[in-house]
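Inverse folding, one chain.
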């Protein structure tokens, strides 16, 4: 609700509101969807527009989509949607990706989806899929070489320079896959796709994308042997092979263990993959070994993982090979029917490069998080949730030892059958951005909010959901962040000339 610098200076071409509209319809085996969206500062109400028409389960035809869609294959080394699970409080679930083949695109993310047609036919235990796409995307193109310097993914088109990059390059994508599907024994598949870009990429290092035409081949497997599940994928990009091998042991209903080995060579360039790893979504220049267990113990549900990783070649921020490790333990207990507690500890050690006396050196960066949480379900109409979290960021060689903390109180009430209110107040303090604390927030339907808080301040929000009729639902959210010891917030064209950042969101859902 505050006016940012880009509006004051006249740099933003459009209005302040963010506007989002989506229509989804299903009748028997047919579905249709349309989405239009504009971000704050954009001029056109349909700056983003997506659509699809889908037919499912008509004889041999299991899926057909014309319009916008995403593809998921294997464990995401060669081909996946723009989203994927990463390491978290659940030590088992994020490791194995659930391959959903062809999906209609319903998101407001403006990147990495396909526009064209895709279809799958099934005969016996086999499924054959084919797909074609021709889609424009945002790119910064060098005026001299006519090559792609970068492909921004923020989806913002507010200023003259941002509008200039909008849909300035095109990708033509086509491929085929064959799957063997037997849910009780083995699932396996092979994939080939070719992608061709209107402009060549200008590499910034020897192993970056170079050229405009790329071919990918991949094979995945998912084998069930009693209480053992072996799954993985190997992908070839014409230069090298990336692979991930996973074994999950279900010892009994109360104990599971998964081990995973990933090897992503430095010369494996990734375009449409999103695989498991320390750098989620980047299937390149990483070797890692992950072990995780989930134990439904007498004292509660325990999740533990330990991940070791190495970046064998230089990266953008590190000119030499680096390595690290990460450990997490999460304990969730229920002392009574109405009370639930969570204890979480996480430590990450990673090598980075910093200048010491004018010389670049490898130093160790340690980041630790400690969280305690209490959930009290007083009744079916009232739930309280309290959390305390502290984070520590440390680089011993530079004498850096920073802390941050967060305390919040959350309340959910349901005063009437058709009305639900969620509210939270957060107190936070951190020495700098390095010691930021994060908290997932309840939001409007379809919106995921993971807010990072740094500095010193207070944040609060209230979300109400009211079902006016069986067909119409109204949702409203007001959120505000206040930092008393600063005079400005954010930076660049998003700068606010005050210390309050607030926003109001209204959403209507009509379900027939």
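Residues assigned per position:
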């Amino acid at each position: 609700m505050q006016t940012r610098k880009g509006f004051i200076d006249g740099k933003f071409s459009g209005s302040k509101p963010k506007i989002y509209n989506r229509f989804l319809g299903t009748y028997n085996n047919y579905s249709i969807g349309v989405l239009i969206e504009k971000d704050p500062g954009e001029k056109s109400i349909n700056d983003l527009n997506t659509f699809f028409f889908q037919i499912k389960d008509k004889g041999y035809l299991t899926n057909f989509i014309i319009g916008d869609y995403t593809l998921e294959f294997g464990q995401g080394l060669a081909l996946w949607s723009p989203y994927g699970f990463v390491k978290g409080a659940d030590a088992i679930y994020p490791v194995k990706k659930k391959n959903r083949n062809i999906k209609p695109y319903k998101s407001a993310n403006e990147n990495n989806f396909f526009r064209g047609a895709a279809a799958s036919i099934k005969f016996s235990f086999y499924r054959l899929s084919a797909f074609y796409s021709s889609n424009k995307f945002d790119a910064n193109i060098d005026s001299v070489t006519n090559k792609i310097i970068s492909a921004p993914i923020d989806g913002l088109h507010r200023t003259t320079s941002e509008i200039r990059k909008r849909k300035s390059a095109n990708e033509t994508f086509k491929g085929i896959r064959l799957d063997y599907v037997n849910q009780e024994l083995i699932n396996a598949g092979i994939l080939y796709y070719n992608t061709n870009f209107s402009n060549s990429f200008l590499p910034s290092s020897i192993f970056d994308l170079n050229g405009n035409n790329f071919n990918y081949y991949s094979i995945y497997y998912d084998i069930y042997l009693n209480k053992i599940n072996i799954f993985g994928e190997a992908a070839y990009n014409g230069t090298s092979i990336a692979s991930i091998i996973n074994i999950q042991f279900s010892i009994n209903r109360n104990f599971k263990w998964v081990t995973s080995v990933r090897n992503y060579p430095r010369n494996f360039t990734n375009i449409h993959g999103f695989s498991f790893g320390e750098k989620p979504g980047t299937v390149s220049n990483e070797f890692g070994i992950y072990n995780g267990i989930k134990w439904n113990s007498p004292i509660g549900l325990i999740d533990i993982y330990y991940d070791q990783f190495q970046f064998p070649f230089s990266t953008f921020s590190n000119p030499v090979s680096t390595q690290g490790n990460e450990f997490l333990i999460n304990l969730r207990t229920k002392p009574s029917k109405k009370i639930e507690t969570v204890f979480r500890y996480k430590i990450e050690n990673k090598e980075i490069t910093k200048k010491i006396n004018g010389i670049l050196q490898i130093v160790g960066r340690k980041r630790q998080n400690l969280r305690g949480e209490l959930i009290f379900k007083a009744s079916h109409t009232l739930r309280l949730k309290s959390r305390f979290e502290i984070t520590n960021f440390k680089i011993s060689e530079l004498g850096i030892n920073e802390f941050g903390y967060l305390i919040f109180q959350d309340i959910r009430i349901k005063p009437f059958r058709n009305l639900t209110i969620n509210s939270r107040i957060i107190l936070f303090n951190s020495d700098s951005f390095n010691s930021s604390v994060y908290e997932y927030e309840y939001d409007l339907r379809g919106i995921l909010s993971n807010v990072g808080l740094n500095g010193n301040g207070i944040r609060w929000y209230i979300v109400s959901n009211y079902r006016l009729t069986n067909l119409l639902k109204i949702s409203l959210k007001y959120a505000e962040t206040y930092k008393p010891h600063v005079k400005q917030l954010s930076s660049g064209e998003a700068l606010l000339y005050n210390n309050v950042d607030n926003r109001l969101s209204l959403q209507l859902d009509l379900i027939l």
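The mean pLDDT is 93. The CA atoms of residues 235 and 241 lie 5 Å apart.
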